[in-house]
Amino acid sequence: MIDAFRGKPPNHAQVFINNVRGHIKPFADVEAGHHGSNPGHLMNIAWHVGRKIRWDAKKEQVIDDPEANVLVTKQYRAPWTLDI
Hints:
- It is built from 4 helices and 2 strands.
- The chain is mainly α.
- A hairpin with a 4-residue loop joins strand 1 (55-56) and strand 2 (61-62).
- The protein is elongated and about 45 Å long.
């Protein structure tokens, strides 16, 4: 059962360990995941506000739509913050 979970070589855990030991950026790192999930988040924002939105990928902000831009990040409960 455990071998089925690990998958075919090289398994994810071994790739992770090799990357850490070799100081290698993973093929699908957190930045790739961030950019890959943006279209879905932006679609949800557009659906929520009920209109098309325009996105500035460099600034990571909705262009000329303060109502939609507020939805890009969430409000955190004190004392938690996200300093960008």
